[in-house]
User: What shape does this take?
Amino acid sequence: MHKAIYLSVKVTMPPDSQGGDRLRQLESRVGQQLRQTEHHLTGTVKRVQDLGDQVEMTVSLEGEQEAPADFARLAIDDVRRALEAAFAAPAARNLRISVAEIREDTSAVDDLADAGLL
Amino acid sequence: MSRRNSSSSPLQTLGAIVGTIIIIILALLGGGKVLNIGTGGDTGGIQDNSGGAAGGGNSSGASANGLPSQSFKQTAKEITYHGCPPAGDGGDSQLNLNKNRVDAGNFQPTNFNAILTLPWPKETERTSHDQWSASAASQVAQAEGLPVLVEGYLALARQEGPESPNCHSGTDFDFHIWMIDHPGGSADRVGGVVAEATPRVRITHPQWTVRNLNNLSTAGTKVRISGWLMLDPEHPDQVGKTRGTIWEIHPIIKIEYWQSGSWVNLDDYQG
Assistant: This one.
């Protein structure tokens, strides 16, 4: 069965004093990691919001799985592993990012549509 | 206060406190305020939901809060759909069972405002049914699963995204349908009640399309929606922005619209 999900990914990182460069780096790096996850899910970053002390990314993922199997758990675990690996990489260490929360975002379609992003 | 009162016995003092509390409660109820008494969260313990719009329609067989009586409840029937079981693929399985019922009921005329102003325990927000306290579960159970028939108008209809009740299918999505109590549009959703058309029910109602529903919204056509009253604790962040309550009509079982002096089933919609 082809499945999909929207996740809210919150990370902590120092304030962006470089005119949004760090947010763009973050979006780019996460986007690269989500091209294919450990369980062959593919994802994209739909939105990045600076919340002050945290940055929230709305991420969509899709992939194949048996219908009754827990897709949210699979997707969240995959994204967490992908991000932790990405942020630990030498090229990302200057960003000083850590994952604060990953959860399913069942309001994402409404929020994105209302923001004109769908 | 006199010195005599200040020297009352502990029993008398306790009685005075209890009496004061009772008077405050009666005053609040008499003032028409609907209080959402919560136990946690970041918005405080008490939320005033009384600012909603006035409703239309009428009620029969109703209890004191304007909702149908408990005697109209029935055992839910669910189906497996495209390999997806009624409990979905994870998350809050009881919530998914509630969303995935497909049975018709003895739907009772219910005032729009009775749903809009119906309180909910704050502790239920973003929390699975199996984590609720007994008192919260009991409060929700008073209304959840009641068969309601509500008149109003449509502010907007929209296809939603993947979610656990539909096993995160990439093709089977719910429709969000925002009901309001007056003709209006998307901006009026803040005073709206969300009703949801699920793929398991829509499969037998091909005329329930987003386009047809939004045609009814644009034309300001009065509608009548029958379905099951349900608390959806997943969207408290939308209250006050794009909905008026987390109580929903979910799933919708029947949609009718007003045309030439009578109700017409949306299944017979001619566009």
About this structure: The domain at 2-114 of chain A is CATH 3.30.70.360 (Alpha-Beta Plaits). Residues 70 and 76 of chain A are 10 Å apart (CA to CA). Chain A has one domain: 2-114. Residues 71-88 of chain A form the longest helix (18 residues).
